[in-house]
Each structure stands twice: as C-alpha cells, then as structure tokens.
Amino acid sequence: MNSLLLQCRPGFEGEAASEIQAHAERLGLSGFARTQASQGWVQWQMNDAAACETLMQSVRFAQLIFIRQWARGQFVDLPEKDRLTTLLGAFRAYPRVSQVWLEVPDTNDGKALAGFCKKFQAPLEKGMHKVGCLRANAPLPGRIQLFFLNSQRVFVGLVEQTNAAPWPMGIPRLKFPREAPSRSTLKLEEAWHHFVPREQWDDRLAPAMTAVDLGAAPGGWTWQLVQRHMRVTAVDNGPMDKALMDSGLVDHQRADGYVFEPRKPVDWMVCDIVERPARTAWLIEQWLGHGWCREAIVNLKLPMKTRYAEVQQILARLEDFFDDAGVRVSIGCKQLYHDREEVTCHLRRWN
C-alpha cells in the first residue's frame, strides 16, 4: 500500500498533485505523481506503506481543496472471470472494515462502468462477509474503496471513514429542484453539506435568520436561503425570479454587489459573482472584518493558469488580514462537485 489514489475534477490533476506534494513536503515525506490530463485522478507514489499512512493520518481531509476523495493502497489487475477471488486475496493485506465502496473516475468512461459496479456490489459484499473482512454496522473505523479504471483494473484503497469524503467519489447526490431559478442553486446546497455539519443546520441555517445574496439574479442561491425561511436581501442590477419575490422573504436591492453595504449585520452573506479573486478577497475582508455577517459562502473564480498558487495566495492573504485585524475567523475552501473553474470558500467569524 505505497501509493495514494486522489480523485479530482477532470482537468485539475495538476492542482491535486501540487496540493498533496505541498502537504508531503511539509511533513518531510517524498513522493511523485503519476497522472494524465483530464482523467479525473492522480496516483501519488511513495516509498513505502508507512509513509502513505503517515501522510493520511497527518492531513485532515477537510484541509484538502482540489482532492475530492482519497485512499491509500495499490492497483490490482483482475482476471476477466472470477474477479471476486482475486479481490478477496488482495484484502488479506487490509484490516477488517465495516464499509466497502465502489468508485469510478468522474469521466464518460467512468460513468460507463456504473452498471458493472452496481451488479458487482452485492456479490462482493457477500464474499467479503463470508471470509470475514467485512463486518457491516460494526464499530470499525476503516472503509475499503475500490476505484475501477475498467472491469479488469482497480485501485484497492483504504481510508478512515472520519477522514475522507462522506460520499462515494466525494460527490453528494443532490437533486435539482425544478422550482429553483437556476442550476447554480446546487452549489450553495453542496457548500452547506460540506462546510456545515448536518446536525447544526437547525441552529446555523435557522428560520428567521437574515442573509444577503450579492450578485443574486436570477435567484439560484437566494432560493436556497428562502427554502430555509430566511429573510434575504438580494443585491443585483438584474431581474429576480418572480416566484421568489412573491415569497415575501426577499428584498431586491438594485446595486453593485461590491459597493453594497448592509444597514445592520446579518447572519449570512453569500456571493457567486464572476470577478477577479483578489477583488473577491477584498469583499470577504470587508464583510467579515467589519462584522457585517457571521458566516459567508463565497466563490472564487480562478485564472486558467496558476490556479493552485492563486488559491494559496488568496487564503494566505485572508489569514494575514484577519490576524492583523484581531478578528478570529475560520476559513474553509473546497472545489465542490458543482464548481467549475472556481473554488468555494466558507468563513465564520467567532468574535
């Protein structure tokens, strides 16, 4: 088990490799990336299994930005027939687990394997139970993740369930609500799933809270806030969805999102404006620095090149700004499944 399998958005393999390399170097560990453009995954090769385990135990999955899912393990070649026997043999090198997931690359070729994985899941679990390497519902920390490149080549990976994505392939299964004005609504919903523990939604996304949506039109993000029964100030020079306005919970302010200032502090600020990352960072500094909001979800649009470096620079800038201002703010950042050439930041002010 001397390599990591890192899943990412196709086209962001370089960023995923740079990210894991930075964490490895910080820990004094060496390794190298094997990848191809747009394949949606990276293999990070290390010297031995101990180094892989140290890296995964020393880095919290929540710290990772461009990596959707990860596991440590090795590739295994499967015969055309009786794949199960080969896999059960490979599992001897792994601890007993309570879960097994079947995953594929987030590409057209990967999606073509969905039918195979669905058929293979039941006999796989049955075989694992029989030999004792799977104990469903047992209090065991590990999970085996099988990442299929095709029906005859698979990465057999191991993760600790509390330090990995809680969804197969790192993709939450969200359904687009027909009533929403735009598909961008799923970005905000996914951000909440990622940054706000589900058991805290009733307190942190509570009815009667107040929110400001900068760059709101036509209202995809505002729709999510209204579904939580929040009172929303939607800031945009463009028109808002009529049904949202009829809800009675939305105040439409025709203004520039980068100029607007709230009359009084609100619980949430959200922003999905297409703008340079540096200008969006300034916006974050204003809202959290002045205490205009308690929490914020903001998208950073990335340049075509130096995307990893740009994100690191912006995050370092924000940390320095809040430290100098004496403002305690926690910062999270992730490239969500519904993000494209962008990442989503979550900020929470504590004082």
TrEMBL record:
It catalyses: cytidine(2498) in 23S rRNA + S-adenosyl-L-methionine = 2'-O-methylcytidine(2498) in 23S rRNA + S-adenosyl-L-homocysteine + H(+). One of its GO terms (biological process) is methylation. It is an enzyme of class 2 (transferase). Pfam families: FtsJ, RlmM_FDX, RLMM_N. Its EC number is 2.1.1.186. Residues 82-158 form the Ribosomal RNA large subunit methyltransferase M THUMP-like domain. It is found in: Cytoplasm. It comes from the Bacteria. GO terms for molecular function: S-adenosylmethionine-dependent methyltransferase activity. Residues 182-274 form the Ribosomal RNA methyltransferase FtsJ domain. Monomer. Catalyzes the 2'-O-methylation at nucleotide C2498 in 23S rRNA. Belongs to the class I-like SAM-binding methyltransferase superfamily. RNA methyltransferase RlmE family. RlmM subfamily. This is Ribosomal RNA large subunit methyltransferase M. It comes from Atopomonas hussainii.
